[in-house]
Write a structure and sequence with these properties.
Elements (H helix, E strand, L loop, with lengths): L5 H20 L7 H9 L3 H5 L4 E6 L4 H14 L4 E3 L7 H10 L11 E5 L5 H8 L3 E4 L7 H4 L2 H13 L5 E5 L3 H4 L9 E6 L24 E8 L2 E6 L11 E10 L2 E8 L2 E7 L4 H16 L4 H7 L9 E7 L2 E6 L4 H11 L6 E6 L18 H5 L4 E7 L3 H10 L7 E3 L3 H9 L5 E5 L1 H15 L7
Parallel strand pairs: 1-3, 1-4, 2-3, 4-5, 5-6, 6-9, 13-17, 14-15, 14-17, 15-16
Antiparallel strand pairs: 7-8, 9-10, 10-11, 12-13
Helix pairs in contact: 1-2, 2-5, 4-10, 4-11, 6-8, 10-11
Length: 459
């Protein structure tokens, strides 16, 4: 693509920076609008402000934000200066805002590296402008079906993006058959990551998203299983199967609310690794971060060492202090992610209070039928759950679903006012876990920030 001239560049950068300044002065995040304004001035401005950068793009259904956070932390811990679109605005114009504001007035990037979270459908729009060195695909699950139209359409969107970036090294989950199929019939180099059969993890088996073999249309069999449709898959008809990972988690030795202790094999060397975030899905994210370093041609030890000090991204196991009691927030937006959050919560032998919020706005997906496919029975029948607060635009529908799962009026209470909920939570004596979907997370987080002094989501 043709780069803008100096006049177009200066005007576009100035428009972006001024718009963001005004929006943030008025208390708004200034995420997408500055990028829209800038690209109206110069539609190819991203070619200029990303020129010469080494960029890793992370896409997929679950784990994008945390994987980005881990990769960025690895780079900065290794002494590299790096841009991260930490606000979570992962469509084209939101990413544009961050890249343009990272440039000088003449369009020269201020950092050599960038880690960019990208929506699955936006990947094909973004990559022709920025030519990323690596593209990480975390996994693909059914999510926002009213927008994507099903997981196979999401797969098609991501594949189109990869086809438009043939020189990017792909970082793919070896156990996830959909994203693994992206390595077929493309010239891109691939770095694989995954969990070996020796990890000893067994979650709910749900092959509804696995699809069929992309080579012959055959059904998958599994030599071992991690959760959902992730595991040692193989086609019983043609033999298409899980690839041997370049980064293998050989054991998960311990998971607590503070983090995980695992063993990882990289280039035939096995070593103990501490990950400062809990849950099996974050073990996958950690493996992806190590694999991303390989794709970026950086020392893997930098990534391994950094995992012990990585911090949660906003809304992803983020903690808030409420009068000495801890509230931990876990974003959930589809059955696979929600079920994994439940597995994490029920792995601890302690009582807790649960907060569940559900909205059905554009940022969430208007179709909330996914709650019917979510294993709320696992949480509603757990004796350690002492109270469930239910809120959001779809509080009634969620409450009804919980009642079907075994949570009667003695266990659950509908509270749709966030300030009233905050006052109730301040009186709770048990640890609190809040599981909102996206827009309800932003609303809940705003109230918690005001009460606790945590940073805004773009900071």
């Amino acid at each position: 693509m043709k780069k803008p001239n100096i006049v177009q560049t200066v005007l576009s950068v100035a428009a972006c920076k001024f718009t963001r300044f005004v929006l943030r002065k008025t208390g708004r995040g200034g995420t997408a609008i500055p990028g829209i304004v800038a690209m109206k001035v110069s539609k190819n401005i991203l070619c200029k402000v990303s020129d010469g950068m080494e960029i890793v793009v992370v896409t997929g259904t679950n784990g994008k934000t945390t994987s980005c956070n881990m990769i960025e932390h690895s780079l900065t811990s290794g002494g590299h200066v790096c841009l991260l679109n930490k606000s979570g605005a992962n469509l084209l114009h939101g990413i544009a805002s961050d890249l343009i504001c990272n440039a000088t007035w003449t369009g020269k990037p201020k950092t050599h590296y960038a880690v960019l979270e990208c929506d699955e459908a936006a990947l094909k729009q973004l990559v022709p402008f920025i030519n990323p060195k690596a593209i990480v695909v975390t996994n693909l699950f059914s999510d926002q079906v009213d927008r994507y139209g099903g997981v196979q359409n999401t797969l098609k969107e991501v594949r189109t993006g990869i086809e438009r970036s043939p020189k990017s090294t792909l970082v793919l989950n070896a156990e996830e058959p959909l994203s693994a199929s992206l390595a077929l019939n493309v010239p891109n180099k691939v770095v694989w990551y995954g969990l070996d059969s020796t990890v000893g993890v067994q979650g709910n088996i749900d092959l509804s998203d696995a699809g069929v073999c992309p080579k012959c249309g055959g059904e998958y069999e599994y030599d071992y299983h991690i959760y959902a449709h992730l595991g040692g898959f193989r086609c019983k008809k043609c033999g298409h199967k899980r690839q041997t990972p370049d980064v293998s988690v050989t054991s998960i030795d311990k998971i607590t609310s503070k983090g995980s202790l695992i063993h990882v094999k990289v280039q035939d060397k096995v070593q103990e690794v501490r990950v400062a975030l809990p849950a099996v899905y974050n073990v996958y994210n950690a493996a992806a971060a190590i694999a991303a370093n390989i794709a970026m041609e950086l020392p893997t030890q930098e990534a391994i060492d950094s995992l012990s000090s990585v911090r949660s991204a906003f809304g992803r196991l983020e903690t808030f202090d409420l009068n000495g009691n801890q509230l931990q927030m876990i974003l959930v937006k589809n059955p696979a992610g929600c079920n994994q959050a439940f597995s994490y919560l029920t792995s601890f032998d302690e009582d807790f209070t649960l907060v569940l919020h559900l909205n059905n706005r554009t940022g969430d997906g208007h179709d909330i039928s996914w709650i019917e496919d979510t294993d709320y029975e696992k949480i509603c029948t757990n004796p350690h759950v002492k109270k469930i607060y239910v809120g959001g635009d779809c509080a009634k529908e969620l409450s009804d679903r919980l009642r079907k799962a075994g949570a009667g009026d003695d266990l659950q209470e509908v509270v749709t006012d966030y300030n009233k909920l905050l006052e109730l939570l301040k009186q709770e004596k048990y640890p609190i876990f809040s599981l909102p979907n996206y827009t309800s997370m932003m609303e809940m987080r705003a109230v918690l920030n005001q009460a606790t002094g945590n940073k805004e989501f773009w900071q």
